[in-house]
Amino acid sequence: ARYFDKELDILLSRKISSPSWDEPLIGAVAPDGKVIMPEHRQAHFPMEEEICRLSVEETRKELIRQTRLYRSNRPPRNMEGRAVLLVDDGIATGSTIAASVDYLKRAGAASIIIATPVCAQNVYDDLINQVDHMVVLEVPENLLAVGQFYQDFTAVEDHEIIDILSPAMGKT
Prior knowledge:
three-stranded antiparallel β-sheet; Rossmann fold; globular
């Protein structure tokens, strides 16, 4: 953001998963709480099932907690008519990035560019038709995990994220 002399904001989406099913990923929760679930999973994981509802609620609560914490309770920026550069550390299944793209479109973003170091080929083929541009360094056919493209893919702690974001986002 500083390089382009533009505003920085965060846009969080979270994976919905359940330990009770063989398939670890159900879908994702968008920044506004909307559940994004691929059609092929909707029939297999009906939303009325109690365990699915609980997983969605738990995911929403964590999304709200992180968003408030990282933004220091500042409201999200208005996306109407804006060009948005959406950055991700890597895209394997595409669930969370698809939820973010869906949100940005509903919020009226004028254009969406995705930047990521690695994106699975099948996900890239789908996303490229949903956004204005993608900048990707590696597009492997068989991406097992984003972490395989990093020397250290240790989870980043909340305090580390806040330390980086706070100066860039300003205190207002």
